[in-house]
Structures are given as C-alpha cells and as structure tokens.
Design a protein that fits this description.
10 helices; mainly alpha; MCP_dom_sf; Mitochondrial ornithine transporter 1; mitochondrion inner membrane; 301 residues; repeat
C-alpha cells in the first residue's frame, strides 16, 4: 500500500531518533576523547594518555560528560536528517525524471543524504555547542581560560544566553555546514555502496544485522576521513568562544596550521575511527529495524 507522506515522514523521524539514541549510547566516551584531543592537543600524548588523565581528574563520569546534550543533539539531528532524507530522495527522483517509487542508485542516495544534512545542521549546531563545552570544561577551567563555574547543561545554556544571546548557540554553524554537507555525501554513499556489496544481487532490504552494522561502520569511516579537519576547527570555535574568543573558520584554520602544524587538524582521529564502527553500526541497525517494524505495522493496519 502507498503510505501517506506525513505518516512516512513521522516513521523516518522516529526511526532516526532511535538510531541517534543508539549511536550516542554506544560511542559517547570516544566522542569525549575526540573533542578533548581536538581542542587541547598539547595536553594529551595520545588516546591512552587522554583516557587515563580524564579518569584520574574527574573519574568514570568524565567519559560521559555532555551525554544529555549529545543525546538531544543526535536525536534531533538524526530525526531531522532521516525525515529530510526521505523528502530529498523524492527531490532527487524528480530532478532525475524517475517514478516516485523508483529505486535510487547509490550515488543518488548519497546526494539526497548530503542535501538532508543541511537541514539537520540547523538543529545540531546549538546542542553540539553545549556538548563540546561540557566535555572540555575541566581543561578550560584549569588552563585559566574561564573562571570555575557549575558544570551542568543548564549553567552552560545560561552562560551562552547571557554573553551572546540566542544567536550565540550558532557559534560554529558555518563549519558545521562545511562538515555536514560533504561529509554526509560520503556517509550515505559509503553505507549504500557497502549494502550493495553485501547484497550481491539480492534486495538490500533483506540484509541481516551484521552486514547492516558493517555498512554503517564503513559509512562512518568515510564521513570522518573526508571531513575530520573541518570538525576539528568546528570544535575549536565552539569551545574557545566560551572564553570570549570570536574567530571565524578561516582565521581559526590558519592559526592552527601556522602555530601547531597540519597534524593538529587530525588530533583525536584515533578515538573517532574506533568509535565510527560501533556507533554508526548501531545507528543504522536501530534505524533500519525500527523503520521496518513501523512500516510492517502500517501495512498490517
């Protein structure tokens, strides 16, 4: 049966929320290490050093700093991303002159995912800003860049509103868009190409959980390899603006390369690569299975 576009959008949004939740719960400690190493590469010799220091400084809970905004960020981002992904697939079909039910090629799906990510960035930027600041609060306080304060989600939100107003939540929006739009082309492209490889002639919808998770992991690896330096600059802008430094993408990029070298743009790459497989595998597994379950329920109804 043909589903109502509004119902289809609601299913995509709910499945995206399930995927975002699975992604955060699986990968949050590695994300914390990534942001710390990106923003303060001189404080940590590597992933192991960062893990040991974080544990000794703030205990096990330090690995889960920013989990609340990370959950909000990922649920919001993936809900909007997958809902808009469905709409953008229809736009791609229209541009390509295809029937509304026609299967898209892997490249066309990648293009649809890239378009959808621009909308997702608008809801992701504010919540990711709060997450990054919470994750690096200890380093900002001990380095003297900010005064000691309450280390809570609400205190960070109040600080942003007091200093910069509502628009302050969009520090790093341009770099978020620079990361999301090309990054999600590779993300969905890598995922769909991997699914095609595992399907080998069968329908991609028949794939089991292991090929789905592997395909999601490949998509995550493709995304981060393509846009990691952009993400590093975004983290710097969002965290350092906490101390009043207002620098744009180009100025921050030039400053990092000039003062720290090109390798500083890849600080924290190791935890990101380790995180990419389980986190994105869990994301797509939760998305595909929850979506399939809801679609089956709709057809049965």
């Amino acid at each position: 049966m043909k589903s109502n576009p509004a119902i289809q959008a609601a299913i995509d949004l709910t499945a995206g929320a399930a995927g975002g939740t699975a992604c955060v719960l699986t990968g949050q400690p590695f994300d914390t290490m990534k942001v710390k190493m990106q923003t303060f590469p001189d404080l940590y010799r590597g992933l192991t050093d960062c893990c040991l220091k974080t544990y000794s400084q703030v205990g096990f809970r330090g690995f889960y700093k920013g989990t609340s905004p990370a959950l909000i960020a990922n649920i919001a981002e993936n809900s909007v991303l997958f809902m808009c992904y469905g709409f953008c697939q229809q736009v791609v079909r229209k541009v390509a002159g295809l029937d509304k039910q026609a299967k898209l090629s892997d490249l066309q799906n990648a293009a649809a995912g890239s378009f959808a990510s621009a909308f997702a960035a608008l809801v992701l930027c504010p919540t990711e800003l709060v997450k990054c600041r919470l994750q690096t609060m200890y380093e900002m306080e001990t380095s003297g860049k900010i005064a000691k304060s309450q280390n809570t989600v609400w205190s960070v939100i109040k600080s942003i509103l007091r200093k910069d107003g509502p628009l302050g939540f969009y520090h790093g929006l341009s770099s978020t868009l620079l990361r999301e739009v090309p990054g999600y082309f590779f993300f969905f492209g890598g995922y769909e190409l991997s699914r095609s490889f595992f399907a080998s002639g069968r329908s991609k919808d028949e794939l089991g959980p292991v090929p789905l998770m592997l395909s999601g992991g490949v998509g995550g690896i493709c995304l981060w390899l393509a846009v990691y330096p952009v993400d590093c600059i975004k983290s710097r802008i969002q965290v350092l603006s906490m101390s009043g430094k207002q620098a744009g993408f180009i100025r921050t990029f030039i400053s990092v390369v000039k003062n720290e070298g090109i390798t500083a743009l890849y600080s924290g790459l190791k935890p990101t690569m380790i995180r990419a497989f389980p986190a994105n595998g869990a994301l797509f597994l939760a998305y595909e299975y929850s979506r399939k379950l809801m679609m089956n329920q709709l057809e049965a109804y």
